[in-house]
Amino acid sequence: MNAILQSLSNIEQFCCYFKELPAVELRNGKTAGRRTYHTRSQGDNNVSLVEEFRKTLCALWQGSQTAFSPESLFYVVWKIMPNFRGYQQQDAHEFMRYLLDHLHLELQGGFNGVSRSAILQENSTLSASNKCCINGASTVVTAIFGGILQNEVNCLICGTESRKFDPFLDLSLDIPSQFRSKRSKNQENGPVCSLRDCLRSFTDLEELDETELYMCHKCKKKQKSTKKFWIQKLPKVLCLHLKRFHWTAYLRNKVDTYVEFPLRGLDMKCYLLEPENSGPESCLYDLAAVVVHHGSGVGSGHYTAYATHEGRWFHFN
Q1: 146-181+192-267, what's its fold?
Q2: Less Cβ crowding at N or C end of the chain, within 10 Å?
Q3: Residues of the chain falling short of pLDDT 70
Q4: Contacts of 211 (CB under 8 A, 6+ apart)
Q5: Does the keyword Ligase belong to this entry (predicted)?
């Protein structure tokens, strides 16, 4: 939770949007001025993830506290995301997805009669060309993290091509199997895996296996086919997830392959569906934050985050 909150709080445009939202007063007159303690059993349905996220970001950046415990936000997470209840180990990427999805849904719905997407429309820098909505209206979540994939499937029997567009908030990349044994940069055996190799493997033409036969409308039955992803629209902030947990029928293990990535200027142009329609700058990405899983196990370990602020890197542990 800390690694994800610290990373998101260092995405400036995203963080500033929440810090500038008006406060929503949730407490009624009786409890005003008194600190309220929550337990899981309390029937308090009037909770706002957006409001607790806003308060957490404001507290992190006000500079007067040496430490801050986001207990109210933690309580709301338990309240609205049942799979994160209890104290078992959880996955940081999964938490980030749930957090962003729920923030998006609440911002779409407005809160206490004030539609927060209305506030977003006034912020003209974000409202331009935000067609990549997960569902319904655009919010700050889709305006910053939202992109669009084109999924192209070709029937190998009759050649029929089917295309569909899928919105995304992040891309989950496999680490290609030929690099699996290389655990450090200086290890002798073979080339180093780069982020480009992972992206190439994601966008390469792939033949679907027998378990994933495609229902061809022309042949009117399931057929062998190929699949290819193109990026139709890049997001403002590109979130990439390296799939480091490998599952087989009997075994689950961590893929600890060394993956090299640039700190500046990751060029995404070659993965675009229509590269000629985008300017040279719009495809270049500089690194803003990294979330790292430490430990060799799948069900345990520790997450830390690295993030950049005003040109300096910080390690949040």
Answers
A1: Cathepsin B; Chain A (3.90.70)
A2: C
A3: 25-45, 110-136, 280
A4: none
A5: no
